[in-house]
Amino acid sequence: MNRLEKLFIEKPKDILNIYFTAGFPGIEDTMPLLRAIEKAGADIAEIGIPFSDPVADGETIQKANTQALDNGMTVELLFSQLKEMRNEIKIPIILMGDVNPLIQYGLEPFCKKCQEVGVDGLILPNLPMDEYLLEFKPVFEKYGLFNIFLITPQTSEDRIRRIDENSAGFIYMVSSASTTGSTSGITDEMRDYFDRVDQMKLKNPRLIGFGIKDHSTFTEASHYANGAIIGSAFIRAIKDSEFPAEAGSEYIKSVLG
Amino acid sequence: MLQIENSAFAVDERGYYGNFGGAWIPEMLYPNVEELRQNYLDIIYTEDFQAEFNQLLTDYVGRPTPLYLANRLSEEYNTTIYLKREDLCHTGAHKVNNTIGQILLAKRLGKNKIVAETGAGQHGVATATVCALMGIECIVYMGEVDIERQAPNVARMKMLGATVVPAKSGSRTLKDATNEAMRHWINNPVDTHYIIGSVVGPHPYPDMVARFQSVISEEIRKQLFEKTGSENPDYVVACVGGGSNAAGTYFHYLDEPSVKIIAAEAAGHGVKTDKSAATTFLGKPGVLHGSKSLMMQTLDGQVVEPHSISAGLDYPGIGPLHAHLWESGRATFYGITDDEAMKAGMKLSKLEGIIPAIESSHALAALDYLKPGSDETVVISLSGRGDKDLATYMKYL
């Protein structure tokens, strides 16, 4: 059974998914951060594959991407860092990023590697559903990978149903019309949207991301969905630290309260 | 505007030209792009839209632009060369054909704010212009590097009431301005329309922009017939960055095999150096800015920062239509270096009294490779005028 599937059966509420960019702040931080994320009590780790032109990201994650690439991060290096990962890390692992590095690596070789190192799911925001169904889905399924789709406040009900139909693992609910790292907190408009989607009784669990940054926003997001995703705020917590793993661990503990 | 559904070079239902195109966008952009996709053809082929579009092209842009027989240039190359004078359009380049079309579309979609990216500033000026014309708020993203090298256009945009926002990430040129404009659209999805300036971006942009620019080849056919008795030249030549003036110049000739299609890409310091923007020479298929096309990238799929002396061609990708023209062999591509372009620009200035935009100089420089015969006819798209480039030209004087 895919670790994501198992997780949501065992723990349907208060899921914390932590995003970080591979190769940031240091090129060798991938495994120390994964260990810290698991040990501090997060439920899912989402590893960003850095990209030169991350269109859906705000400044914090853009800069992390640039620094990671400057540090020399590559897809191949990431897979080699994750090679022995499953000897120690038990939580589900998701790779997230622009679809182009995957296409250049090759769809089949990429998915095969994911399975080998123990990746459970992929978030590829600019992979459209139709392209996914046409070309990607059979390969993802062959290697046991869940594809996680995004929905936003502007996504129509029909489309949410269609996304739910084709999703596995969970649905990524983007909290507002924005790039990552917005700091507006949770507004009434968002609450209406969370409620609206909650009442749709989707078959997949939902995690809320974008703008979740601390204990209070995490707790509130968890009230409306199965949990939340934190990215930019985690990056901010580790970016200037001499000991990123420790800083990340402290931050996660503060979020969980 | 011609309906082209039966062409081998028309976009298909999935938004593809052959293997290139599509709408590779994050969900945040889906509702906007889908709204456009569902409505653009219905809107632009209404009588009301066509009437307003054509009237503005005539009375405001100054169309039709002349098709000028360049006698001294023809003599120099011992052939017959016509210049399609897009440089005489209001705002100084072909870009305004598209921005007029898109602002009319945006109005009909109920959008009251416009965002755009710009490289050389021509598209930014053309967007700021139509926004002033319609009284619509306008934000233009422009790379910091381009803001420096195209200062006159920055001043124009500001005078026209637009807000110019510097793109400070990456190479700080056109690709980064495009990233920022897309981010702006993600953050302002409901009231804002994104006017993309080239035949790039997610479907339906490449097709929509090509249709608005197709007025260029529509006029060429008519004008050439009046002058020579034939609608068809032997060659149509245009520079290609993203490829909007090229798409407009080729449009009505795509299915006319007797007309050879020539594309001049910016080779920068040369295609064998790491300072180039010649995408068909150096690129591979990949996904950038919402479509699958050729793009300059590392083995790891990271976008390579391009180089061209011309800000308008300084882009690591190419429109999916052009990638298809390249792959299918319908078009022949030449890589024109910075030096070759500058020399061609100087030559045209001295021989014809026309100072071309450096972008257009790349198309002129292709003549040296083309070597057209004495009985052949060449139509070159003179996509823009060189006023904005004087500082760069002066270094070559």
UniProtKB/TrEMBL annotation, chain A:
GO terms for molecular function: tryptophan synthase activity. Keywords: Amino-acid biosynthesis, Aromatic amino acid biosynthesis, Lyase, Tryptophan biosynthesis. The keyword Amino-acid biosynthesis applies. One of its GO terms (cellular component) is cytosol. Pathway: Amino-acid biosynthesis; L-tryptophan biosynthesis; L-tryptophan from chorismate: step 5/5. Tetramer of two alpha and two beta chains. Belongs to the TrpA family. The alpha subunit is responsible for the aldol cleavage of indoleglycerol phosphate to indole and glyceraldehyde 3-phosphate. This is Tryptophan synthase alpha chain. The lineage of its organism: Bacteria, Pseudomonadati, Bacteroidota, Cytophagia, Cytophagales. The gene is trpA.
UniProtKB/TrEMBL annotation, chain B:
The modification N6-(pyridoxal phosphate)lysine is found at K95. Residues 62-384 form the Tryptophan synthase beta chain-like PALP domain. The lineage of its organism: Bacteria, Pseudomonadati, Bacteroidota, Cytophagia, Cytophagales. The keyword Transferase does not apply. The gene is trpB. It catalyses: (1S,2R)-1-C-(indol-3-yl)glycerol 3-phosphate + L-serine = D-glyceraldehyde 3-phosphate + L-tryptophan + H2O. This is Tryptophan synthase beta chain. The beta subunit is responsible for the synthesis of L-tryptophan from indole and L-serine. Keywords: Amino-acid biosynthesis, Aromatic amino acid biosynthesis, Lyase, Pyridoxal phosphate, Tryptophan biosynthesis. It is an enzyme of class 4 (lyase). GO terms for cellular component: cytoplasm. Pathway: Amino-acid biosynthesis; L-tryptophan biosynthesis; L-tryptophan from chorismate: step 5/5. One of its GO terms (molecular function) is tryptophan synthase activity. Belongs to the TrpB family. InterPro entries: Trp_synth_b_CS, Trp_synth_beta, Trp_synth_beta/beta-like, TrpB-like_PALP, TrpB-like_PALP_sf. Tetramer of two alpha and two beta chains. It comes from Jiulongibacter sediminis. CDD domains: Trp-synth_B (cd06446). Its cofactor is pyridoxal 5'-phosphate. Pfam families: PALP. Gene3D superfamilies: 3.40.50.1100. NCBIfam families: trpB. Its EC number is 4.2.1.20.
